[in-house]
Amino acid sequence: MNIAVAGSLSLDSVEYDPIAHLNLLFSHPSTVSSVARVSSTIQHHKDDLSRSIASLEWAQAYGPDSSLERMQSAQAGLASLFQRIESVRSRALQTERDITTMTADIKRLDGTKRNLTLSMTALKRLQMLTTAYEQLRGLARTRQYRECAGLLQAVLQLMRHFNSYRSIEQIAVLSRNVSELQRELLEQVCEDFEMAFAKSEVAARRGVLVEACLVMDALGDHAKTRIVTWYINTELREYRQVFRGNDEAGSLDNIGRRYAWFKRMLKTHEDEHAVIFPPQWRVGETLAMAFCDGTRDDFKGILERSMRRIDGNKLDVNLLLGCLQETMDFEQNLERRFSSNPRASIDTLSSADDRIQNFNGSISVAFEPYLNLWVESQDKALAAMIPRYKTQPLVPPDEEFSPQALVPSAIELFHFYKLTLSQCAKLSTGERLLDLSRTFAKYLDEYAQQVLISFLQRGGPQGPPIQDIILVLNTADFWHINANQLEESIKKRIDPDMASRVDLSSQSDAFMGVASAAVMALVAKVELDCEGAWREMKNTNWGRMESVSDHSSYVGELLKHVNDRCQEILPLVIKHQYARAFCDNLVEHLATAYIHNIVVCRPVCEVGAEQMLLDKYVLTKSLETLLSHSPHAPQPPPAAFIRRVNQSMTRIDPLLKTLQVRPSPPEGLVQAYLTLIGDRSDANFRKILELKAVRKQDWPHLLELFAVHREGASAGKLLQASPLLTPLMSSAAAGPVGAAAGGVGSSVSAAAAAAAGGIGSAGLQGRFDAASLGEKLLNAARDGVERMGPGAAGVGAGVGLGEKATINENLKNIGKFFRRDIGGLGARFGKRDTTPTGAPDS
């Protein structure tokens, strides 16, 4: 192998790889001996490279075209360039100095020309000002006001150009002369006006006065204000003398004379004087506002003196209202008269507060502090209306009953509220309107309590007629809706900071309470008819019954009375919500009455209990169709109503199924009781034994078994006392205790029955007394009504014997409960074309 050649070729390669080169040189162990020769060759090649590099470095540094020479040449070029730049800058500065020297004279010539132009202009204006001033003085002496007006504007405009030259004596003198001429013109024009009005020569000198107003317009706002103020004082001088200096003429009794006097004066102004003043001055409107300001101040003093009188003859409210109404009519007349043209910003006697002229309230505001007398008069008027409403017939003699009709007094009261609210909103939107809202609330409460409830207490033992109850129901619903709308209407009118203090929600609840009482009165009508059927049930010997029939005879009679009455009542109940409430409460009370009649019918044998269970099933199926008697109810009856009927009637099943179990073997009766009734009460278990007429000698063993079994495996699931059995048999002769059996599924009508000593017999000895229906219904509500209305499964009514709530509070409470399901009903009832369809409004 030629190592030198191989090494040379490998070292010159661009992609030289020393490892590959070594592997090539020493590919076999035998080549190791050539290491010295390879090393010598590489060292020789290295030396050659070093000599070549050194030679190239010397040539680069010291050759004829070396880098050092090029750098020295570049530095010499830069120095030459800097010298040339400095030379150019020097020549530029010299050129600038030369140009400045050449143009200095031209600048001086331009300045001189500009100053000369300004001087000529100023001299020309001064000449024009002097000439115009002399002409203006001559025209002023001859009272040529039209020419004076135009020339005065030119003089004032020219004078503004010399404001900066007042340090010059001649200019200062001229300025003083112009100001003096302005003052003389002002005094001269005012003197001309005074002479013309004093000598009644306005018509003869109208042309001069019209032109004089042009001069006053040119003189500025101060001159215009002075002449307008003088004119107003002149025109109102007689008014102030007559009505301020004379107690009789200035009294409230003569308020009409004030307005009549001003109307005559305003007519004179429009016929004779209005043409004198420029239209943009709006002198007539300013004159009217000045009259209103003065009259308002007069009324404030008169009213204050009237309230401070010590002779007892204080301000008559009728006189106050008459004056107030006449004042508002006068203000509205002025507003219509002056509102046809767009309002301008004008300086007047009454514009110190920069107010926008608006005649509404400009005088009547003086009456506002005394409007409490008016509110008191409305209170007295309403207080007189309530007793009269109590004695009015529910249906006028010349009209026939209509299911949509209202009690006539409700329409009258509605219109009274509407008119009164409209009047008060015009008089005051502050404290007085808030006082009126409280008066409204007070008499809404009294109307609900003293009028509507009193209608439900009529009729003696039979109660009021059905038509009367329907009218009360319609009226209560009408005012329930309109009380809320009345509140919103007042809040829209009253000042925003007082809106939160207006609240008629309790009055709305009170009327809903009246509606609930009316619904319960309709339920009582059905209960009265059912007395015979319940009596037949009690007369049946349930303890010796041997077989079960289809249903007992009393069931047919009971259903006949219920359906007949429902067919009479439900078509008259226009709103489905109230029809549903009536049916719900009727079903609830019938279920409660059925439970208590079971107690009265004791003893009940197993066959008797089975017959009662069958009778209950027949009753349930028939009661499911109650709503079908209402033409306004959906057909078929809603599923919710059917569930409600079944929930009310099914709560009887545990009692009857327990009574079906034979007392022997005793374990069977105990287990049935624990499974069906599901409580731990010995007293309740004794009630079952008593209902079944179990022999007294068997009681100890049954009670012992009951004590053992109730502690068994299911002890934790047992109630302490069953709500079904707990209230039963505590006072069989006095009627049902509580609104329902232990509070399970009770309704407001059932609570009312308990409070009334038994509405309808319900298997009781007490008789229904319609004369005390309203009070007893409300007492029942006070005792803890928790729920009323469609869709309720029924909850109990607790007995609150210690409560001392008022009748009106009871109405509100029962209304809140009733409104959960019936509140917010559809459109209000109407009566012919005169029936209101909204809340009182203006």
UniProtKB/TrEMBL annotation:
Subcellular location: Endosome membrane; Golgi apparatus, trans-Golgi network membrane
Residues covered by the Vps53 C-terminal domain: 610-694
Coiled coil region boundaries: none
Membrane topology of this protein: Peripheral membrane protein
Domain Vps53 N-terminal: start-end pairs: 15-389
Family statement drawn from the similarity comment of this UniProt entry: Belongs to the VPS53 family.
Protein name: Vps53 N-terminal domain-containing protein
